[in-house]
From TrEMBL:
Recorded family membership: Belongs to the bacterial solute-binding protein 7 family.
Entry's localization field: Cell envelope
Biological process, per Gene Ontology: transmembrane transport
Database matches in Pfam families: DctP
Name of the protein this chain belongs to: Solute-binding protein
Length: 337
């Protein structure tokens, strides 16, 4: 009897030890990220729900969720819900915005980015890709972080910027007196002035109503943003000037980045890269459908000889490549083959 009781007691001790070891192992796995405390983050941008930006952002949020086992959740705020580009960048610097999709307005926070906004800087899409996804692009991201505390995760592609107006434009002479909304970017303002128009800087959230009320006559943006913002309702002509092969950057507050664990940081970076491939493919796949939508709404497409527009716009390039650093960046872009 005593022998049986001793064996029973030993069995209880052993089973308790096994459970305890299992719990300890589970706690260690949770600490590694399996059941970490959930972090909720905000991602804002100015484009609409159906824009490739937002669809790419959704993919990014899904991938982060998967790669962190649900420990990092990203909520999306499209259509300027968290403010315009400047608000989003300032929010990332303050830590009140965690992620944003922003582009040219970055030049107001780190001046060399103005070079990227110069009309007719990139020869074509291939040239742009070689710059953004090569050594020049990596340096641009590193310098942005150093100077603004905003972390550039990935460059996302956009189709070329086109002009829309209620007046048919075929030559630079047709731009005379035309009030064109441009972003709050010095390079855009100078180039459109050189092409003969009257550039009017304003936040994108004000563009539709300003076109509707006649405050401005025209604007310029990639087709995806034109269509998703329904500018075809207040603009008659789509003029194919192809003046900027541009980007939008998936950015992150460095303060937010530093709050994440190393595993979470790695997951965010991996998700950003995968979402970039998704968005870049989507943006060009959707272009035909977007064109169909704006023309079905009555917008007329105007193809132009871009050479005279290019000649006038390029006259201001030198004004944005004066300092040794800016000239080095400009030359490295132009000389990328």
């Amino acid at each position: 009897m005593l022998k049986k009781m001793g064996l029973a007691a030993l069995a209880i001790v052993m089973s308790t030890s096994i459970v305890a070891c299992g719990q300890k192992s589970g706690d260690q796995n949770a600490a590694a990220g399996g059941a970490a405390k959930q972090v909720k983050l905000k991602l804002g941008h100015i484009a609409g729900d159906t824009d490739p930006w937002n669809l790419g952002a959704k993919k990014f949020a899904e991938l982060v969720d998967q790669k962190t086992n649900g420990s990092v959740k990203i909520d999306l705020y499209p259509s300027s819900t968290l403010g315009n580009d400047r608000d989003l960048i300032e929010g990332m610097q303050l830590g009140s915005v965690d992620f944003a999709l922003v582009a040219g307005v970055l030049s107001n926070f780190y001046q060399p980015y103005a070079i990227l906004e110069l009309p007719y800087l990139f020869r074509d899409r291939t040239h742009m890709e070689k710059v953004l996804y090569g050594p020049v692009g990596e340096k641009l991201k590193a310098d942005l972080l150093k100077n603004t505390q905003v972390r550039g995760l990935q460059f996302w592609e956009r189709t070329p910027r086109q002009l829309t107006a209620n007046k048919k434009v075929t030559t630079p002479a047709d731009l005379n007196g035309l009030k064109i909304r441009v972003p709050e970017i010095p390079a855009s303002i100078s180039a459109w002035k050189a092409m003969g128009s009257t550039p009017t800087p304003m936040a994108f959230s004000e563009v539709y109503s300003s076109l509707q009320t006649g405050v401005i006559d025209a604007q310029e943006n990639p087709l995806a943003l034109i269509e998703s913002s329904k500018l075809q309702e207040v603009q008659k002509y789509l003029i194919n000037t192809n003046h900027v092969y541009g980007y939008v950057m998936l950015t992150m507050s460095d303060a937010t980045y530093k709050k994440l664990s190393p595993d979470q940081q790695k997951a965010v970076e991996e998700a950003a890269k995968e979402a970039t491939d998704y968005e870049n493919k989507l943006v060009y796949e959707q272009e035909k459908e977007q064109l169909k939508k704006v023309t079905s709404a009555g917008m007329q497409v105007v193809d132009v000889d871009v050479t005279p527009f290019m000649e006038k716009a390029k006259s201001v390039h030198k004004d944005f490549a004066k300092t040794p650093a800016d000239k080095e960046l400009y030359d490295s872009i132009v000389n990328t083959k």
